[in-house]
Design goal:
Elements: H1 2-33, E1 41-42, H2 48-55, H3 57-68, H4 77-80, E2 93-100, E3 103-104, H5 106-111, H6 113-119, E4 125-133, E5 138-142, E6 149-157, E7 165-169, E8 172-175, E9 181-184, E10 190-194, E11 200-208, H7 215-227, H8 230-249
Antiparallel strand pairs: 1-9, 2-3, 2-4, 4-11, 5-10, 6-9, 6-11, 7-8, 7-10
């Protein structure tokens, strides 16, 4: 029995050791051959779909305002993704998920039909939600898990002074503007501050990074594997519980 336990422990450490190294090599390849380059912050104008979202930002914000009427019923980020407790443990980072690694939050999407229509037109969208930061919230420095996606923010509510509501990506500091896009590589260390007295809300999306074949095919495969992982499945179960809670609080949604 002890020998079997020791073997399983050795096996897990072996997989973890070589898994991390394989991921490091893959991330190097993705950065090296990325069709949009490898930098902390990207030009949103590289992607035509960012213009379409900016042109419709007030439509999205109108649906957001309805969501925020039930702010107290919204889950904290760590309520959905429990590993986020390394970044946040309070109730000052709320979320409203629409998509998560391809999983569609049907009832949430039904409450925001125009937002859903717009994000479903974005090529390679894997995750989309409203990210809601309370006044004074600080998200400490961290990095994302995988370079195969780029992170997108569309400013929906940006409190004044705007410069005090900011994000650092590597050594670049940016602040949000209502109706404007921010696109960055979250595998560069980044950190967020809302040092204002107001609430900051963005439409938060992850989109597949443009890559040449066969890297693009490999990237798609890895994203599908991650979507089926216990980590994502647990987050899906957590979300479904919160969705039922919101259904009880908010107006019923036709199925």
């Amino acid at each position: 029995m002890e020998d079997a336990t020791a073997f399983q422990d050795l096996k897990r450490r072996f997989i973890k050791y070589w898994g991390f190294r394989a991921l490091w090599v893959l991330e190097w390849l993705i950065g090296r051959f990325s069709l949009v380059g490898d930098r902390p912050v990207h030009d949103p104008r590289t992607f035509e779909w960012t213009r379409h979202l900016e042109a419709n930002w007030q439509v999205i914000r109108e649906e957001l305002e309805d969501v925020l009427r039930h702010r107290e019923a919204l889950p904290n980020f760590q309520d959905i993704s429990t590993d986020q407790t390394a970044l946040t443990t309070d109730d000052r980072w709320k979320t409203y998920f629409l998509y998560g690694f391809g999983f569609k939050a049907e009832h949430n999407c039904a409450r925001c039909p125009e937002t859903t229509r717009l994000i479903e037109q974005v090529p390679g969208m894997t995750t989309a939600f409203f990210s809601i930061l309370a006044p004074g919230k600080h998200i400490p420095a961290h990095r994302g898990p995988y370079k195969g996606v780029l992170r997108y923010h569309l400013g929906l509510r940006v409190p004044e002074p705007k410069e005090a509501c900011r994000i650092r990506v590597d050594d670049e500091i940016r602040h949000w503007e209502e109706g404007e896009s921010l696109l960055f590589d979250d595998t560069y260390q980044h950190e967020v501050w809302n040092d204002t007295g107001g609430e900051r809300v963005v439409l938060f999306m992850d989109v597949k990074r443009p890559l040449p074949a066969p890297l693009a095919t490999l990237n798609d495969l890895i994203i599908r594997i991650v979507a089926r992982s216990p980590y994502i499945q647990d987050a899906k179960e957590n979300f479904e519980q919160w969705e039922r809670h919101l259904d009880r609080v908010a107006a019923p949604v036709a199925s």
